[in-house]
Amino acid sequence: MGWGGPWDIATIMTIRMTTPDAPVLLSLVQWLSPAFPTGAFAYSHGLEQAVAMGEITEAEGFAHWLTAILEHGTGWNDAVLLALVLRPGADLTALNQTARALAGSAERLRETMDQGAAFAMARGQMGQADAVAEALPVAVGRAARALGLPTQTVIALYLHAFASNLTSAAVRFVPLGQAAGQKVLAAQHGRIAALAERAAGASLDDLGSGVFRAELHAMAHETLDVRIFKT
Fold it and tell me: Which of 7, 67, 140, 176 is the Cys-Cys partner for 181 at CB 3.0 to 4.6 Å?
């Protein structure tokens, strides 16, 4: 196709100006990938307890659980925290304290703090001087500030990585077939995009969790006799 018609030079330049530079975007993708050493694979976010109690036995049950976590639990709170961290002049120390306060149990706190510390350590070993051990969404947001990516992009990729890790845990422990797990994850794409857009304009007043059963599962998991996951 030539430069004329609907794909004229002005359109091409507009696309180039609004599309994130690939190497920059790939930095974020690397930080959120399973290969990055945060140890995310070791955390089930209470899913192990729900499975052990017989509450999640197939794909549909897991899909409902994952949706609730994303829309009304840690997924939403982390998305809002990321948005706030990415704003100019953000008080990252205060936001880190807020993230800690939002953890509803010892395991929830351990999950976000341990992964955030591992994230910062890995970036520090890569020569990133701004790496600070703090709650995971704050640590990721701190790192992403220098990338200059759209807030919605950062949030969407973060939430997708979060959902992907929980899907991997479900495939291993429910257990779900690989195809069933991927179908559940794919069905979340529209929801993740909508949450990212909504969270990008959110404020501190929009923080809050309503998944009380999941929080109770996280508490009960602390004394589960046989555990595969840390949370």
Answer: 176
Tell me the pLDDT band of 18, cut-offs 50, 70 and 90.
Answer: low
Q: What is the pLDDT of residue 133?
A: 86
Cα within 13 Å of Cα(33), Cβ side: 9
Per-residue CA distances from 84 to 80, 130, 172, 199 (Å): 6, 18, 34, 9
- Can you tell me which residue has the tokens 């002049």? 89
List of residues 6+ apart from 149 with CB closer than 8 A: 20, 24, 25, 28
Looking at per-residue pLDDT, the higher value among 227 and 99 belongs to 99
Residue with tokens 């009380």: 212
Maximum C-alpha span of the chain: 68
Render pLDDT for 4-13 as a digit per residue (tens, 0 to 9).
444 444 443 3
pTM score of the predicted model: 0.89
Instruction: Look at residues 49, 38, 69 and name the one whose alpha carbon lies nearest to residue 173.
Output: 49
Residue owning tokens 């994230």: 119
Which structure tokens are listed for 198?
Answer: 């909504």
Q: Which of 204, 197, 209, 99 is nearest to 156 (CA)?
A: 197
Q: What's the chain's average pLDDT? A: 89
DSSP states of 38-84: S-GGG--TTHHHHHHTTS--SHHHHHHHHHHHHHHSHHHHHHHHHHH
- Structure-block tokens of residue 8: 């004229």
In this structure, which amino acid lies at residue 93? T
User: With contact defined as beta carbons under 8 Å apart, do 24 and 150 qualify?
Assistant: no
- What pLDDT, on the 0 to 100 scale, is given for residue 17? 44
